[in-house]
Write a structure and sequence with these properties.
Length: 273
């Protein structure tokens, strides 16, 4: 396990990420700042209920200014810049929340085959903890070195598998090979788009709350630019994505309408469900 504080990664840390496909723990903000963001999230949940839960699952940074702040945290961008360079897009964001003693688990899988990533793009995910993410409440787990190629997946109807399509890697994964990504509030981890990862159910009284922010550098797309993303650092010499608007108030009607339009465009019927 490689430890780092805020700021750019050392060459050794970059090598660790390239070799293993993940890196942690890194510091995104103070514990007090994480607690403040958690309070905003839980107030939003209380006000908006199921509609709020759906918003939090994908691109909440388009309708909530405080989430737009989370995708732009300077310590996180400094680290991502060490791997992607000075020009950085946020291509997506998703909150992953497990309530106390929740039986749900995330099966072993890879992100890239199921994320509608445009051809030629490469994503690095920063998983930022707003609450403790520990073994007891089902922290993220990864298998080092499994990020070098795409694996076959199967699909099942197990209702406890929290993945939207019920996907699972079609190879046996030895749990003894897994690294447990345990994080304190304010810390974050990085993982590659092809790393084998998942998480277990919660056996804890503590909520697990984290936001996964998907970062991508600009690139020369083969197809036309029809996808959208938020440029969070630098510039885009290729016009890779259509720029997304920055929200000015929580759940402004025009922002919510834009988010719905973008998610239907990206995910189709899966989002309508």
């Amino acid at each position: 396990m490689t430890t780092a504080t805020t700021g750019a990664l050392s060459p050794g840390q970059v090598d660790d990420y390239r070799r293993n496909g993940f890196l942690f723990p890194l510091d995104a903000m103070t514990a007090d700042q994480a607690a403040s963001y958690r309070a905003k999230l839980e107030a939003f949940e209380a006000e908006y209920g199921e509609r709020g839960s759906a918003i939090l699952r994908s691109k909440a940074h388009l309708v909530l200014p405080w989430v737009n702040e989370l995708i732009r945290l300077e310590p996180v961008l400094d680290v991502v810049e060490s791997l992607l360079g000075p020009d950085i897009y946020c291509w997506g964001s998703s909150f992953f929340i497990k309530n106390p003693h929740h039986p749900g688990y995330v099966a072993w899988h890879q992100d890239a085959p199921f994320s509608s990533i445009p051809k030629g793009g490469e994503i690095i995910t920063a998983w930022i903890a707003l609450a403790p993410s520990m073994v007891e409440n089902g922290c993220l787990k990864v298998v080092a070195g499994t990020h070098t190629k795409e694996a076959e997946h199967t699909f099942n109807s197990d209702g406890s598998n929290m993945l939207s399509q019920g996907q699972e890697i079609a190879v046996e994964v030895d749990e003894n090979d897994a690294t447990l990504i345990q994080l304190r509030p304010g810390q974050f981890s990085l993982h590659h788009q092809f790393i084998f990862h998942g998480s277990g159910p919660s056996h804890s009284d503590e909520r697990r709350i984290g936001i996964a922010v998907r970062y991508m550098k600009p690139f020369n797309r083969e197809e036309g630019t029809t996808d959208t993303a938020t440029l969070v650092r630098g510039s885009d010499p290729y016009g890779t994505f259509i720029p997304e608007p920055v929200p000015t108030a929580d759940m402004a009607p025009e922002s919510v309408a834009y988010l719905d339009e973008q998610l239907v465009s990206r995910h189709g019927d899966r989002y309508r469900k």
